[in-house]
Design goal:
alpha/beta; 40% helix; rod-shaped; two-stranded antiparallel sheet; 8-stranded mixed β-sheet; Arc Repressor Mutant, subunit A; 10 helices
């Protein structure tokens, strides 16, 4: 039984005539009559009493009318559910703590403006654990340090930025940089094992063997320790260092091409490449555009969950 035929029957009953139902349904009167006739044949019962231009429900029709209305309403709800499911979605996005800032949240809000039916759920963790969650399907995309291995074909990578290695200290360094490092307590930046340790690469290239007073993978913790006079550290220039204030000094290391790559890794199964291209563009430039461009690829309301 075609639910559209039931809808036409209800239109006839509610309007009182086949002609008016045809106008409401944007069909011809003949088409409405054919639909009613098909229902009568299928149900083996007369549904309408016709008296000139008017039409009224028979007793049999009145008995099935409530259920017919329910069927038509359920079909309409089913279509609405499908359409809303196509429009509305949740983007499960993970990121390392050094990438979370007020500017980042503003960009997520702008993404929601471009994709109003997409809700963003944020979570923080280490690069290694976020990557594991992405592979297991627990996250749709992650913003992490670039892994030091080849990615599977199910994941696409977008380069967001390169963060060069810098020296973080309480006061401006004096004299030779290597001698300065040797003469101060060293706070070792220790990233996840599957991430290239650019600080260690620098020390190895200079044949510097520093005994660290402590080590941590938290850049925020290193910044606080340096600000408190706890030592100096070699760290990637993450976003917050641009607003470092007077507590620390950031010194560029000359003639060294070492940097931490921050990448957006996307599970291709999420199925919305235009959304990720806009997110990539936002995170790189802060701007959206109507027609997504081909992003650089490398080797909305917001809910924040802190792991």
């Amino acid at each position: 039984m075609d639910s559209r035929f039931l809808k036409s029957l209800i239109a006839v009953i509610d309007s009182g005539s086949i002609a008016e139902a045809a106008r409401l349904e944007h069909l011809t009167a003949a088409a409405i009559s054919q639909r009613i006739k098909a229902l009568e044949i299928e149900l083996n019962v007369e549904l309408l009493c016709r008296n000139g231009p008017s039409a009224k429900a028979t007793e049999a029709c009145l008995r099935i009318l409530p259920r017919a209305r329910q069927i038509v309403a359920e079909v309409a709800s089913l279509k609405a559910d499908i359409q809303n499911a196509e429009l509305a979605s949740t983007l499960r996005l993970g990121l390392i703590p050094s990438q979370l800032s007020a500017g980042f949240l503003n960009k997520i809000d702008r993404l929601h403006q471009a994709f109003p039916f997409t809700r963003v759920s944020l979570s923080q963790n280490t690069s290694r654990l976020l990557y594991a969650s992405l592979v297991k399907g627990e996250l749709d995309a992650v913003i992490i340090e670039e892994p030091d291995f080849e990615l599977p074909k199910t994941i696409e990578a977008f380069l967001l930025r390169r963060e060069p290695l810098v020296l973080l200290s309480k006061e401006p360094p004096q004299g030779d940089l290597d001698d300065y490092l040797r003469s101060h307590r060293y706070i070792e930046y220790l990233p996840d094992p599957f991430i290239a340790n650019i600080a260690e690469q620098y020390l190895s290239s200079k044949q510097l063997q520093l005994k660290s007073s402590c080590d941590t993978g938290s850049l925020q913790a290193i910044k606080m320790m340096v600000a408190d006079g706890g030592g100096v550290s070699l760290v990637p220039r993450w976003q917050d260092l641009d607003e470092i204030g007077d507590d620390c000094v950031m010194t560029t290391i000359p003639n060294i091409n070492l940097a931490r790559n921050i990448v957006l890794l996307v599970a291709k199964s999420y199925g919305k490449p235009d959304l990720f291209e806009q997110l990539h563009l936002l995170l790189r430039t802060g701007q959206t555009q109507a027609e997504p461009t081909q992003p650089e690829r490398c080797t909305m309301q917001v809910r924040l969950a802190v792991a």
